[in-house]
Amino acid sequence: MYEKTYPSKRFNITLDFLKKHIKTSETIFDLGVPNPFSKIMVDNGYTVINTKGEDIDNDQSALQNENYSVFTGFEIFEHLLNPYTVLQNVKADKILISIPLRLWFSPAYRSKTDMWDRHYHEFEDWQLDWLLEKTGFKIVDKVKFTHPVKKIGFRPLLRWFTPRYYLVYAERVKSDK
């Protein structure tokens, strides 16, 4: 069978991880407007609902009003001021989240021209783990991976072996109450 590959190492790893844990029969609520990866999910047989561009820090109604069984947030939690409240409002029992990790040798990303294209949070892995635990999720699987850049220099060299992304699959912990 022909397996399509994508130009980004990150997209290939994320798609393989998604396929490992989520069936195409499940409906995905993907946090964020339609984007290249949500299109990849659709091209691979998934039904995907995206947000409409609302400020998710202030308006989480879509999380409660849409019908979905899986929640995804790929490289978006770092842009949120309050990811805790977002996770509290997720009604799915399965979530996949990926984040860029905070790198000791690089400052947090901040666009000088786009006020929304900034990283309010750059997590360490334990911080996302704790956030998921505090909001009632248990991590089932996780992976870290590098994202080398084709540049010359000390920081580009470090990116070859320092993990940049953290990808997590978690399920809601069922309460005995």
| Count of the separate structural domains | 1
What is the residue-averaged pLDDT?
A: 84
Separation of the first and last Cα atoms: 47 Å
Task: Please write the string of helix (H) and strand (E) elements.
Answer: HEHEHEHEHEHE
| CATH H-level superfamily title | Vaccinia Virus protein VP39
Number of strands: 6
Largest sheet: 6 strands, mixed
Poorly predicted spans: none
- Named at the architecture level, the CATH assignment is 3-Layer(aba) Sandwich
Instruction: Give Rg in angstroms.
Output: 16 Å
Secondary structure class reads alpha/beta
Tally of contiguous helical segments: 6
CATH fold descriptor:
Rossmann fold
Helix fraction, binned, reads 25-40%
- Percent in strands: 15-25%
Give the class-level CATH name: Alpha Beta
Strand order of the largest sheet: 2-1-3-4-6-5
The best one-word shape is: globular
Overview of the molecule:
The protein is an alpha/beta fold. The model has no long low-confidence stretch (mean pLDDT 84). The protein has a six-stranded mixed sheet with strand order 2-1-3-4-6-5, with helices on both faces. The longest helix is centred in the N-terminal third of the chain and has 13 residues, at 9-21. It has one domain (9-172): 3-Layer(aba) Sandwich (Rossmann fold). 27% of the residues lie in helices and 21% in strands. α4 (83-88) links the parallel β3 (70-74) and β4.
List keywords for this structure.
177 residues; alpha/beta; Rossmann fold; six-stranded mixed β-sheet; 6 helices; 6 strands; 27% helix
